[in-house]
Amino acid sequence: MDSVKLTQMVKTSGCAAKLPPKQLHEVLDSIGWMHSPDLVEGFEGSDDACVYRLPVGGGQVMLQTVDFFPPMVDDPYLFGQVAAANALSDIYAMGGEPKVALNLVCFPSCLDLEVLRQILLGGQSKVAESGSVIAGGHTISDATPKYGLCVTGFAPEHKVWANHGSKSGDVLILTKALGVGIINTAVKAGLASKEAQQKAILSMTTLNKAAYEAARDKDVHAATDITGFSLLGHAHEMATASNVSFILNAQNIPVIEEALEYASMGLNPEGLYNNREYLEGSVQFRGGMEQSRMDILYDPQTSGGLLLSMSKADGLLYSQETGFSIIGEVVEKAEAPLLVV
Question: Where is this site: Important for catalytic activity (predicted)?
Answer without folding.
Answer: 18
